[in-house]
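Can you make up a protein sequence with its backbone structure tokens?

===
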Amino acid sequence: MSLDPALLDANAEPARLNAQDLSLGYGRTSVIERLSLDVPSHQVTAIVGPNGCGKSTLLAGLCRLHKATHGAVVLDGRDIARLPTRQVAQRLALLPQDASAPDGLTVEELIRFGRQPHQGPLRQWSEHDQRIVEAALAAADLQALADRPLESMSGGQRQRAWIAMAIAQATPLLLLDEPTSALDLGHQIEVFELIRDLAAAGKTVVMVVHDISSACRYADHLVAMHDGRIVAEGPPAEVVTSTLIERLYGVKCELLRDPHSGTPIIAGVRRR
């Protein structure tokens, strides 16, 4: 897979995203408590942790889909809650876990939706928009499938199409909620390798990931969460330990090293 940084506007000023003393919840139920996070630019950040620890809630808060009960999310030095919707959509793209599309929609038609934040009464569809759509198709290795209906494609192909739509949005920042959920191993690798290509081309990616070994292999920065708080943060090879795994998931394990990447691999998992 390849990515054209110039064509996809990846050389635009990098987005700066951070959470400051952020609290999020549902009604009277608190999920995230006074959390602070600086997202490293031009890197892949993986958020990991057990079910219910607040990973997806944090991601929704970072893109203001979930309103903060305390603190703020700051995008490019400004409170994201105070920014116009179009301005946010031109800087930040979100791929939710439960993305869905109408029946009959083709791959190219889906990707064209990514250009909506750049359209308006004085800004109609242009040759530049079409070039970006074509570049997004190439980035996800989907040129041969551009006219295929989404429902006729495999899970991995559909997921690449959704990521291509986010690429076409031409934002410097991408938020992905479990981008490989329900995919087999081969399709997981396809998606993770595309994410690495995006970061190499200058994008900043934040993704929620369940599999620790995959997070270690494909992320530059790892954020481990438990009970709505960050309990460890940094390069995966430095922060992932058997003690951390036990704290997060309540299991014992041994850590091995991937012979190719040198990243941690979890082995010998057993109940505490």
Notes: DSSP finds nine helices and twelve strands in the chain. The two ends are 42 Å apart (CA to CA).
